[in-house]
Structures are given as structure tokens and as C-alpha cells.
UniProtKB/TrEMBL annotation:
Belongs to the transposase 27 family. Pfam families: DDE_Tnp_IS1 (PF03400). It comes from the Bacteria. It comes from Klebsiella pneumoniae. This is Putative transposase. Absolutely required for transposition of IS1. The keyword S-adenosyl-L-methionine does not apply. InterPro entries: Transposase_27, Transposase_27_IS1. PANTHER family: INSERTION ELEMENT IS1 1 PROTEIN INSB-RELATED. One of its GO terms (molecular function) is DNA binding. Keywords: DNA recombination, Transposition. GO terms for biological process: DNA transposition.
Length: 105
């Protein structure tokens, strides 16, 4: 990829993702995030100026792995097996119980 094509691709991607990034920051503002751990993507750097921002794959890999485990475990609830329930209320209770045990302890 030439330098010019790389700049065009980056500019196009940022213009597409910027509104989603702004919405995500708006949703996260209620949690009073102290430390932002990201990879070195320029969109993060430009938007998180003045905040405690750690740029490292070391920490993002651990977070992504945790989220992947959570997604995989929750996906198992959708499989129609012997333990599958047709009750939405029961699914809500099972998911809530799972999150309390696995995610928050």
C-alpha cells in the first residue's frame, strides 16, 4: 500500500467510526473511567488527550480475552440443547446469576 492510499484509508475509517466513538464515550461517561488502556490507534490518542491513557497491547489483550470468554459462555445459552429453556424470564435469571458469579467476583 502506498503512503497516499494508506492516508486515504485511515481518513475514511476515522470518518466512519468517529460518531460511534463519540457515542461510546458518551455512554461510558457515567462510569467515571480513570485509566484508558488502548492500543496505539490515532483516533484514541486524539480523543483521549488530557486523560490518563496507557497505550499497550499487554493490557488490552487481557481485557479482550475476558470479553471473549464472556461472549462464548453467553452464546452457549442460545444453543438448543437439553438445558435450553423457552422461558425468557428463566434466561434472564440464568444470565444474571452467571454474571454475578463469573464476571463480578
Amino acid at each position: 500500500m502506498t503512503g497516499c492510499a494508506g492516508r486515504w484509508w485511515h481518513t475514511s475509517l476515522v470518518s466512519v467510526l468517529w460518531p460511534h466513538w463519540e457515542r461510546l464515550l458518551e455512554l461510558l461517561s457515567v462510569f467515571d473511567v480513570v485509566v484508558w488502556m488502548t492500543d496505539g490507534w490515532p483516533l484514541y490518542e486524539s480523543r483521549l488527550k488530557g486523560k490518563l491513557h496507557v497505550i499497550s497491547k499487554r493490557y488490552t489483550q487481557r481485557i479482550e480475552r475476558h470479553n471473549l470468554n464472556l461472549r462464548q459462555h453467553l452464546a452457549r445459552l442460545g444453543r438448543k440443547s437439553l438445558s435450553f429453556s423457552k422461558s425468557v424470564e428463566l434466561h434472564d435469571k440464568v444470565i444474571g446469576h452467571y454474571l454475578n458469579i463469573k464476571h463480578y467476583q
